[in-house]
Amino acid sequence: MRYRVVSLLGMLVICTWSACSTSTESNLGVIIRVGDRSITGKDITRIVKFTSIENGIPLSVVWASINGLVNKIVDDSLILEYGKDKGIRLDEIELERAIQDIMRDYPEDSFKETLLTRCIEYNEWKQRLGEQLLIRKIVGERTESIGTISYEAIRSYYEQRRGEFSHPPRVKFIHVIANSRSDAEAVLSRLKGGEDMEKMVQGFSLNHGIQGDCGMNWYTKDMLPQGLAEAAFSLPVGQISPIIKTPYGFHLIKVVERELAGSKDLLEVMGEIEETLLSKDRERYYTRWLDELRKTYPVTVNYTLLDTIRTMNEDH
Fold this sequence. Notes:
56% of the residues lie in helices and 14% in strands. The chain is α+β, with helices and mostly antiparallel strands.
C-alpha cells in the first residue's frame, strides 16, 4: 500500500497549481492564465519543488523540462474550467472514501507524518487529491460516450500483430490444495478409490479447509511455486500427481492440457485488444477535446517571465 501513497503524492505535484491565484488577485507575477485561473511565478516555483521531491529528480532537471509541466498545468486547468461550467463536482463522500482507502494500512497518524517528511501538510494534500479526483471524474464523464470496438476491428488488429501475442510453454491442471498433509492424503485416497477429480472439485464435495480449481486457466512456470511447476510440466496429461508441498499448502494436481510455446488465439486476447483500441480512441478523443477547450477558454502563458524565473532558480 505504501507504493500507492507515493504514487498519489506524486499526483499532487501535477495539480498543486489548481488552488492558486484567482482572477480577483493582482496580475503581478502571473505566468499562466486559463479562464478564471491564474498561476503565479511563486506557484510555479513550488510546483517544481514538489515535483523534484516526489519523483526524486534534481531541481535542475525539472526546470529544464518546465515547458512540459506548463502544458500539463494548462490541460488540467482547462478540464477544471469545463467541469465548473458543467456543474461537475466531487462530493465529500467520494473524497473521504478515497482517503480512507489510501490510509487503511497505516497506523494512526503515521500517514500524516509521511506527508510532513515530504513538506506537505495534510489539509493541502487532501485538497490536491480532491482536485485530481475531480479531474478524473470530469474526464470520465466526458469520455463515457465512446462506443464499443467492433469484432472486425479486434480481429484485424490481431491478424496484423499476431506475433505480439505469443506465450511460453504453459499448462492447465485441475488443482486441489489442503492446509494439512492428512487432508491431502484423504483426498488422494478418494481419488485412488475411483472418484473423478474434476467432479469432486465442481461438486463442492471437498472438506472444509480444502480448496479446488477446475483447471480452466493457463499457467506458465513463472506463475507457480517451484515444486508445483516441476510437477505440472513433467506429469503426463491425465495423471494425478503425488502430494506436493509448497509454502502455500499441500497440493494435488491432474494435468488436463499442456502446450509448447506458441501464439495465443484470438479468443484469449480479445479483451486485451479491445482495451488497447478503446484506450487509443480515448486518447484521440481526449486530444481533440482539449483542442476544443483551448478555443473555448482563453489561455495565456508568459514565457518571458517563466524563463526569467527558471534562470533565477538555476543560478541558485
